[in-house]
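Progress note, sequence design subtask.
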């Protein structure tokens, strides 16, 4: 029978130390989100894939220098700033030489391009999508009953009593299962997903009177 995993070292810390598997997970979490942002900015699929690759190359190269020294610093904010710069850089390159054609129109387009700060990210949506992507990556590390208790409690927002009835578990067993997945998420992914300071978002919903 599969055993639930012990507490693990932060994924970000492992990636910074050169752990390729940890880095691959970070790309798996954020790669699709950066790609979709590129598409929303008007890039064709092939160009969006190229920009996404440029973003993560820059993130990888700068990972050892990433710091959280000031209030508000976060990996998400840092990654968004890199992605925004790469998006704008690519749009400027394309405007200067659109399909090999230059001229006044192209130069005008350069002047009309957004500043990186104007790229229309939706931070709350990004956090939600990154969270869902991340928790799916951890699913295979837990027993099915543990995982379902967490997912139903936190993602589907079912009460502890309803989850217990659905899974034929005690309410205490549901709380324990939820806590195991929650702690793993915070320990391994909290500094990536901005969960460390908001553990209540992973607590689930208790039934009335509990």
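Output:
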């Amino acid at each position: 029978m599969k055993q639930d995993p012990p507490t693990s070292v932060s994924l970000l810390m492992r990636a910074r130390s050169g752990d390729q598997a940890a880095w691959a997970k970070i790309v798996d979490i954020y790669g699709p989100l950066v790609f979709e942002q590129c598409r929303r900015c008007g890039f064709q699929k092939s160009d969006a894939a190229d920009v996404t690759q440029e973003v993560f190359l820059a993130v990888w190269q700068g990972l050892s220098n990433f710091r959280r020294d000031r209030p508000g610093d976060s990996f998400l904010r840092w990654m968004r700033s890199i992605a925004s710069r790469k998006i704008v850089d690519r749009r400027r390159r394309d405007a200067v030489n659109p399909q090999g054609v230059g001229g006044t129109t192209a130069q005008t387009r350069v002047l009309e391009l957004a500043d990186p700060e104007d790229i229309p990210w939706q931070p709350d949506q990004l956090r939600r999508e990154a969270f869902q992507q991340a928790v799916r990556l951890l699913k295979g590390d837990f027993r099915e009953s543990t995982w379902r208790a967490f997912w139903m409690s936190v993602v589907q927002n079912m009460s502890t009593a309803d989850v217990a009835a659905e899974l034929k578990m005690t309410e205490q067993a549901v709380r324990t299962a939820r806590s195991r997945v929650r702690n793993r998420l915070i320990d391994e992914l909290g500094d990536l997903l901005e969960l460390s300071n908001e553990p209540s978002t992973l607590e689930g919903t208790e039934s009335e009177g509990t």
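Residues 1-8, 100-112, 196-201 have pLDDT under 50 and may be disordered. Work on this subtask will continue into the next period as scheduled.
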